[in-house]
Amino acid sequence: MRVGEIDRILEERSDPEYKEFNSRIVPYEGKMYGVRMPALRSIAKDVIKGDWRLFLEEDTGSFEQSMIRALVIATAEMDADERLERMAGFVPEIDNWAVCDTFCGAFRTGPGNASEKLWHMCVELLDTGEEFPMRAGAVMMLDHFLDDRHIDEVIRLMCTVRSPGYYYDMGAAWTLSCCYISYPEKTEDAMFSICASNEILRMTVRKIRDSFRVSAADKERLKERFKGFKARS
Q1: CA 184, CA 158: separation in Å to the nearest integer?
Q2: What is the per-residue pLDDT across 107-166, written as a single tens digit (0 to 9) for each?
Q3: Domain residue spans in the chain?
Q4: Burial profile 49-74: b = 16 or more Cβ within 10 angstroms, e = fewer
């Protein structure tokens, strides 16, 4: 399936109301059709059935094409090294949170040492100083590395890496809030002892308080602890 054919399908499935809604929440300066996620997943599956490598060689000219590209790279059948290589080429192209988070959530890590190669790539992304590649590193950790082996380093990185901007802050806070749900004591200790960004800390506390998986008592305690932390800082 070629880009021109996909554009025709996107045009047919476009929803003006959804386009208006999506354009308000996704910062994207290029063309946006307004096609919902289930349809994009279906199109990506059709691309994968054909010569998906040829599709990836073509330029994408819309938000939806970028989403499809993300899904193809994340899920098409290929060996782990090729997927990581394609990830390395794709991540610098990411310029909005929706493509970033879709890509990270769908990404197939692969067996054996492929997971550790992905981990090291995520750590390297956090060192780029670039907002969306850094968000990709954070969200990929959220989706694939909240486990006993990696949790201490995930928490440390989310608390100490210097932020380049709002969308990284939100990704780091989202990751930390999920760390808290699975590892509450060590996450809270780090949040209030080594977190270098008051903004990330504030967002993390807010996300934890929005969660249905945290007790009302813990939410209130975190709220009060953050108030006290702000007063001292």
Answers
A1: 15
A2: 998 776 789 999 999 999 999 999 999 999 999 999 999 999 999 999 999 999 999 999
A3: 114-233
A4: eeebeebbeeebebbbbbbbbbbbbb
